[in-house]
Amino acid sequence: MLEKLSFNVKPGEFISIVGPSGSGKSTLFKLITGLEEPSFGDILINGESYDNRLGRVGYMPQQDLLMPWRTILSNAALPLELKGVKQQDAHHQVMGLLEEFGLKGTEHKYPSDLSGGMRQRVSFLRTVLSGSNVLLLDEPFSSLDAITRLTMQEWLLDQWEKWKTTVLFITHDVDEALFLSDRIFVFTKSPVKKLEEVNVPLDRPRKLRDIHHPEVIQLKEHLLDQLRARVEL
Amino acid sequence: MKRLKDFIAPSLLVFALIVCWEMIARFIGMAFILPSPTQVVVKLWELKNILLLVHLPATLQVILTGLFLSIVLGVGLAVWMNLSKVAEKTFYPIIISSQTIPIIAIAPIFVLWFGYTTIWAKVVVTILITFFPITVNTFDGLRSSSKELKELLLTMGARKMDIFFKLQVPSALPHFYSGLKVAVTLSVIGAAIGEWLGAQAGLGYFSRRMMTQFDGAGVFAPIVLLSIVGIVLFLLVILLEKITLKWRKTE
Questions:
Q1: Contact at 8 Å (CB) between B219 and B211?
Q2: Maximum alpha-carbon separation in chain A
């Protein structure tokens, strides 16, 4: 899938990775999280190489993957629990964050009581609580409807500015990538040997309408052309 | 109100069947072949002391001991098979084939081994009948846990123990209850078979003794009690399920 791929990400940067399905985006995430090991080369997190990377970065999957048998409170507290934080302390910490995540009053509800957007917020809260300054988000909004997705994108930017974390964000929505990121990596047809890298010429903080800037539209067309060339029908 | 409505149809059907039974039994008029429901109820009332104070406790002891051991063995085996591929390959086929053995046919051997006087022959029959649904359901439940959730837990730095207790056990619980529901109803049958074949007390034993005396109503009276025991145990499992799996009510 991936061959001789090399890149680095600055602290606090927001990077989007776009590419057609099957281009190895998810494989890259599996490698970074430590679920899979590279045959060659090394992966450094915060400048350090680890034998076992599991538990070093926060990972947010495509589906919310909340445990249906746990309340919102204990779902969000899961990473703390796994680190051995006492339940009382963990719950206290989560309770303090629920309001900021727009989840006030849901602590004793079950995931099935919540809407898709709310569940993704819980999932993101859980990812943030992993305590890592590097977050990997794998198409987190792809299952949401278009309007909820826009709201969630704005919300994510707010959160990112607040937490000052490094974010790697997989998407196949070019608009989403342009609106959110500092840089966009385009995955070529597999095996991926080199990355096409695009800087987004927008300042922060951004508004949704900023992506209609002529410069950005030109960039979008360039990106779409590149992606389209790689999709074989 | 809606709940009450749900009960109307089955109650009517049972009532109609009982009325039919009563009429046919009166028409035949031979209580040792087919006692009428009223005769059974009268018999139940006459024998209430000995049935409720001697034979019901004896049967309950067999049922509860058998179920308890069955849960311990069944869940233990399911966990072991889940942990080790070798254990799974070894035990799974044996567990399946054990169900093809007619337990009624081999039950007399247990009576020879453990004797009439202890509860163990009956307990073994109960275990043999009930451990299968518990083991198989629990095992399937443990394996039903989502692979994506497992990977997510791993990325959070979870150890094997965490994955077992925080993911596999909760995923297996609903399956375990399904198995337990089947097992509690079967446990009544298991205990009755055991007592039928060799015992000095118990509802199954009492029923057979009445058979030798051509007392039709006396045969049915303990059977009614056995059936009530089965229903009560089943309802208890449902109650336990409702309490421990609160999250499911919303689905």
A1: yes
A2: 54
**CA B118 to chain centroid:** 21
Residue B250: list chain A partners with CB under 8 A: 110, 112-113
Domain boundaries defined on chain B: 40-244
Mutate to test the interface with A, among B151, B152, B244, B246 (most CBs of A within 10 A): B152
Domain B40-244: homologous superfamily in CATH: MetI-like (1.10.3720.10)
User: Hey, what long-range contacts does B97-104 have (CB within 8 A, 24 or more apart)?
Assistant: B98/B128, B98/B132, B99/B132, B103/B128, B103/B129, B103/B190, B103/B193, B104/B193, B104/B197
Using a CB-CB cut-off of 8 Å, the residues of chain B touching A78 are: 153, 156, 166
The angle formed by the CA atoms of residues A206, A163 and B157, to the nearest 5 degrees, is 130
pTM of the model: 0.85
* Residue showing tokens 């790689």: A230
Mean pLDDT by 10 residues, chain A (233 residues): 76 88 82 86 82 86 90 93 91 89 89 90 91 89 86 88 89 89 82 76 81 86 80 58
C-beta atoms of A67 and B170 within 8 A: yes
The ipTM (two decimal places) reads: 0.86
Partner residues linked to A137 by β-bridges = A60, A169
Quick check: A78 and B148 CB within 8 A? Answer: no
What is the distance in angstroms between the Cα of B130 and the nearest Cα belonging to chain A? 27
Q: Compute the distance between CA of residue A52 and CA of residue B245 in angstroms, rounded to an integer.
A: 36
